[in-house]
Amino acid sequence: MTTILAVRQGGAVALGGDGQVTHGATVVKHDALKIRRLHEGKVLAGFAGGTADAMALLDKFEGMLKKSQGNAAKAAVELAREWRTDKVLRRLESLLIVADRERTLLVSGQGDVIESDDGVAGIGSGGPMAVAAARALVKHSGLKPGEIVREALGIAAALCIYTNDRIHIEEL
User: Fold this and answer.
1) What's the pLDDT at 3?
2) Catalytic residue annotation
3) Contact status, residue 122 vs residue 130, Cβ threshold 8 Å
4) Residue 9: pLDDT band by 50, 70, 90 thresholds?
5) pLDDT band with cut points at 50, 70 and 90 for residue 90
């Protein structure tokens, strides 16, 4: 598993993820990049779950971004619809968080496209811990979104055995 966290605040958004890849109870990689810049760097995407599944979904999402001329919300809805109904895609086990200048969306294979109420969203095994830490930092600190993501993912890494502290962050 992994931890991916998005924080949107004051017209900026940061998306970050840890670098740990596990196979069962064994860590097999420490520095995986689970955050991608898509559509000429204007859209961020992060994934949790099966890597091959996530890569297939990211490729699909990027194609849908091109068809929708960079409209991340429209592309996310189209991806969720196809993911849920296509016999092959339906078997893919992953979650995505996508963000552009306007929205942060969680996309699942159950057809979910969810925009958080407060600009904080997380997925993966350490997601709930990172989200809780980020919400506290948003409320009680003057940190910028990228700084909040780094601190909150660090807290999740200290608590979740499937999350490490080798954090990669992208910002818009």
Assistant:
1) 96
2) 2
3) yes
4) very high
5) low
Task: Assign domain 3-165 to its CATH superfamily.
Answer: Aminohydrolase, N-terminal nucleophile (Ntn) domain (3.60.20.10)
Residues 6 or more apart whose CB falls under 8 angstroms from that of 161 comprise: none
Could you please report the per-residue DSSP string of the chain? --EEEEEEETTEEEEEE---EEETTEEEES----EEEETTTTEEEEEEE-HHHHHHHHHHHHHHHHHTTT-HHHHHHHHHHHHHH-TTGGG--EEEEEE-SS-EEEE-TTS-EEE-SSSEEEEETTHHHHHHHHHHHHHH----HHHHHHHHHHHHHHH-TT--S--EEEE-
* Structural domain boundaries in the chain: 3-165
Structure-token pair, residue 115: 């925009």
Encoded tokens for 147: 């700084």
Each residue of 140-155: pLDDT tens digit? 999 999 999 999 999 9
Token reading at 172: 């818009």
Q: What is the pLDDT of residue 155?
A: 98
